[in-house]
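Box 3.1 A note on notation
Throughout this textbook, protein chains are presented in two layers. The first layer is the amino acid sequence; the second is a C-alpha cell string describing backbone geometry. Keep the layers aligned when reading.
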Amino acid sequence: MYKEEMSRTAFAFIAGATVGAGVALLFAPRTGSELRSSVREYTRQVKDEWDQASQRGESALDTLTQRGKEWIQGAMGKQATGGAETSQKTEAVAGAAQPGGKMASHTVSDK
C-alpha cells in the first residue's frame, strides 16, 4: 500500500513539474539560450526538492520501522514473562479436564 501511494505521489509530482515547465516554455518571452538556462535551473530546483522530500519520506519510514520493531520486541518480552504463568494455567486447565482431574471429579460429585 505504501509503495503504491508513493508511486502515485511521485508520478503526480513529476507530471505537475513537466506541465509547469511546458507552460513556462510556451509563455516565456526569452531567447533560446536564456530559456535553456532557465529550464536547467528549474530542473535543478525540482531535483533538489524531490531529494529533500525523498529524504523526509525515508526518515519517516525508518522511524516507523524502528517503532514497529520495538513494539514487537516489547510484545515478545511480555509473552516471554507471561508465558510461564500462562503455561501453568493451561496445564492446570488441561489436568482438570482429564478424567479424575479436580474439575472432572468435582463435576461428577455434583451430579
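Residues 30-110 form one domain. Residues 14 and 46 are 9 Å apart (CA to CA).
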